[in-house]
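Budget justification aside, the reviewers requested a transparent look at the raw inputs and outputs of the sequence design task funded under Objective 1. We therefore reproduce one unedited record. The lines immediately below are the structure tokens for a 100-residue chain.
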């Protein structure tokens, strides 16, 4: 059996994890951003292999065997900017405003 792991950190999340109990055992993945670094931990059940696609530019899928695996690297500055904030406060009404 081959399992696939493709963590995709983003937004304002600083960590996430998930696990699934397969017929071979527990498969899990977790990632965290901390101190300018990204760490991805993967657990591959006995009797299986995994293909891990890391969220690095130019990263190629990597095949690993059963056990626990850790991948860690420095984060680069994001290429995107935060969208502008939108105010949901009501507009002040004026005396000439006849809308209901």
């Amino acid at each position: 059996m081959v399992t696939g792991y493709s963590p995709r950190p983003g937004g304002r999340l600083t960590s996430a994890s998930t696990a699934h109990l397969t017929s071979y055992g527990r498969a899990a993945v977790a990632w965290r951003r901390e101190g300018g670094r990204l760490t991805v931990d993967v657990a591959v059940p006995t009797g299986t292999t995994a293909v891990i696609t890391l969220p690095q530019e130019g990263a190629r899928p990597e095949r690993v065997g059963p056990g626990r695996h850790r991948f860690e690297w420095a984060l680069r500055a994001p290429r995107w900017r935060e969208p502008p904030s939108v105010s949901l406060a009501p507009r002040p009404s004026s005396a000439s405003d006849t809308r209901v």
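The chain has a mean pLDDT of 82. The domain at 2-74 is CATH 2.60.420.10 (Maltose phosphorylase, domain 3). Computational costs for records of this kind are itemized in the attached budget.
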